[in-house]
Amino acid sequence: MSASTAVKKSGPSAGATARRARKPRRAGWWLPYALLAPAVIFELVIHIVPMITGIWMSFLKLTKMYISNWGNAPFIGTKNYQVALDFNSAVGMGLLKSFGITVAFTILVVGLSWFLGMAAAVALQKVFPGRAVFRTLFLIPYALPMYAGVIAWKFILQKDNGALSHLLFDNLGLPGDKPFWLIGDNAFAAVVIVAIWRLWPFAFLMLMAGLQSVPTDIYEAASVDGAKPLRQWWAITLPLLRPVNMSLVLVMFLWTFNDFNTPFVLFGGSQPPAGDLISFHIYNASFLTWNFGSGAAMSVLLLLFLSVVSGIYVLLMNRRKDNA
């Protein structure tokens, strides 16, 4: 075949490709962008712009002297970060202690909430009379408004007139004086209990939804082979719920480590040392001392920590998934 024949045969296809490339946009191409625009704008206004502003504030000496016109606050570079990370100073030592308390708080709340949610989801997996009633009761703490639930716990944990002290000491007759639940060393246990009460129904809901996709035939076959319930849970339930658990644990970790509402409503304006969670610590460092630059630096450090931990967690889980 000659070269001219080849050119003629290839010419129409090349021309068609060019015409397709110059094809005008179809009508209504802008509609998806228009529908996404409000969400993008609100995301910028509510999250991105305040985050960038907070990062910029962390490099300023933004005290009460400049709060009326914070744009004139002097730039001090990384001095706020140096003060926050100087663990020999009072500020750094307080932040480090609060970080340790928050780590312990997060481990207990996330671990126990996941355990309770898993136990309840497995217990309600099989059909039995009254299962819908138990599901509804278990979800009440999650459906109840957060402030109403924590305020109710605040009344329950009062020293003299609280329901817990009345039950333990007046009704059950425990010896000794009624303890303070919201101050002193008991404050840590109090905030952990309230946080678990709020969080475990979410774990139960997610795990219960995940269990709906597990075929019952697998459990029946395992029972025929002689597998006990604990063995079935370990060999069947956990592996099949791995995708749900990956997302669930990460979300609960972020929510719990950043929890501000629970200690703020439970303890009021000033938390006891045993309940000094880091989000509340940063709030007090900003609004009690009026040093917003230092508080912004602590917030950025918290953001970096959570980002690094979340990234490592996702990488490890994906690597484990690929090796499975």
TrEMBL record:
UniProt cross-references to SUPFAM superfamilies, sorted A to Z: MetI-like
Subcellular location: Cell membrane
Top-level lineage group: Bacteria
Membrane topology: Multi-pass membrane protein
Chief place where the protein resides: membrane
GO CC terms of this entry: plasma membrane
Keywords annotated in UniProt: Cell membrane, Membrane, Transmembrane, Transmembrane helix, Transport
Transmembrane in keyword set: yes
PANTHER family in alphabetical order: ABC TRANSPORTER PERMEASE PROTEIN, INNER MEMBRANE ABC TRANSPORTER PERMEASE PROTEIN YCJO
The family this protein is said to belong to: Belongs to the binding-protein-dependent transport system permease family.
Protein name: ABC transporter permease
Species of provenance: Arthrobacter psychrochitiniphilus
